[in-house]
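Hello Y.,

Per our agreement to keep a running log of every chain we model this quarter, I'm adding this entry. I've kept the format consistent with earlier entries: sequence first, then predicted structure.
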Amino acid sequence: MKVQFQKALGAAFATGVAALALAGPAGAVVVTTQEPNFSEMLYNNGGADSASMQMFSKPGFYLVDVTSSETLAEAGGGSGHAWLAPADGSLSDITFAPSTTPAPGMNLFDSFDVFGVKVSLINSIGQGSDKVNFASYTYDVMFSFTNAADLTITLPGSYLADLPNSGQTNFYTSGTEGAFTSIKFFNVKGYTGADQTGDVYTAGFANFKQPSFEVTAVPEPSTWAMMIMGFGVAGALMRRRRTALA
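Predicted structure for the entry above:
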């Protein structure tokens, strides 16, 4: 895998913003801290603490499944922008994916064209004389695509700290993979030294705030019917024109 720093690509991001491009066999994933104008943002829905949540976005009311190997809680209270945190301790992993389960008044979709979230990591483990403070971090992100095999990348925590908008991390594809069908964050490591040096410990995520995205929408049945009807009308007109010319 080729890893390099470059200027952000694509119309979704302003030019001149540093980004991390990770090229796989089918194209590239671009990671940037520049926050684009997302169309959709997840909101708290007042659900009970659980390892699996179905959440919705506004303004489009798209459904997203959020899962973890641990119990998730909606932090921050109320029904504002989604703020996902561990019910107890820290999170070792979290996955975001378009939901396949319908709900009244909500919409389904295929994949994320662009995905962004504010990631916070825990800064220490243990207590008292056993407390260990972290000076740097790494964590993994696994992407599933519509047209390619899964790809896992490792991001250094310092990548966020050294760039503007340090909490916000955005992902999009540049290549032939297609869009993201899921994004998983996991395998956090904390280091006692700067730049991933010193002793290494298993760490975790403190929270994920304001997950946001652009969607690849699934046409509604009525939309499919209109499209098929349109194809039929176009075919009939072409046949009539050929008959008239003959």
